[in-house]
Amino acid sequence: MKRILLLIVAASLVLVGCENMNRQQKGTAIGAAAGAVGAALLGKGSVWGVLAGAAIGGTAGNLIGKHMDEQARELEQAVPTAEVNRVEEGINMTFQSGLMFPLNSSEISPDYRDDLAAAATVFNKYQDTYILVEGHTDDTGTDEINIPLSERRAKAVSAFLVSQGVDPNRLEEQWYGSSQPKYPNDSPDNQAKTRRVELAIYADEDMKARAQAGNL
User: Fold this and answer.
1) Residues 5, 31: contact at Cβ < 8 Å?
2) How many CB atoms lie within 10 A of CB 14?
3) What is the pLDDT of residues 66-118, one digit of tens each?
4) SS3 call for 135
């Protein structure tokens, strides 16, 4: 309970600090704060909090959700090695680091570049979204190793997407080392699942405006 209260306080401080941010930065910061609390309560991780924080609800939110349904289906078909879930009015896409990177490396494996390029093709088709890229590791090794590794991996994925034509203004990176395990770190299989890069794909201001006007 103390940890949850501390996270709520931290989330409040994030909101206070949003004054000098642009709209995308505000949305990501608020979502990340919500995600921190959500992770403590639900074990879902910050991506789910970002997607919850980006939702606008109502008729417009329903239109955005339907639009995201189409993109999610195309991402599933384009990248069968990734896990694709619809969350709120956005998409959570998860890549296993074991497939994407060599062990302890942030260089994207040559065999996985085609899969990531296929995802970029879908992102370029649907240009009215923001994409948050998060790096995560398991709990083997120290924070001094895991946090920089998760940072390099998140930034490597963003850089690759940019090389495939994705607008860098749509992208943002976060990294958490081993602090947000998706599964208990109690077996090699679960540790492999916890080593991952997750994406939060959510509506930008243009999509929200069109949805609110009923033009989406």
Assistant:
1) no
2) 18
3) 999 999 999 999 999 999 999 999 999 999 999 999 989 999 999 999 999 99
4) strand
Q: Based on the number of CB atoms within 10 Å of its own CB, is 215 exposed (0-12), middle (13-18) or buried (19 or more)?
A: exposed
204: Cα separation from own chain's centroid: 14
The token pair at 41 is 């309560």
Quick check: 180 and 194 in contact, CB under 8 A? no
Phi, psi (deg, nearest 5) at residue 45: 100, 170
Nearest to 53 by CA among 73, 71, 37, 66: 37
Residue type, 14: V
Cβ atoms of 30 and 14 within 8 Å: the answer is yes
Q: Can you state the angle between helices 2-16 and 23-42, rounded to 10 degrees? A: 170
CB of 198 closer than 8 Å to CB of 134: yes
Question: Residue 143 corresponds to which amino acid?
Answer: D
- Contact between 39 and 49 (Cβ < 8 Å): yes
pTM of this prediction? 0.80
Q: How many helices (H) and strands (E) are present in the chain, helices listed first?
A: 9, 5
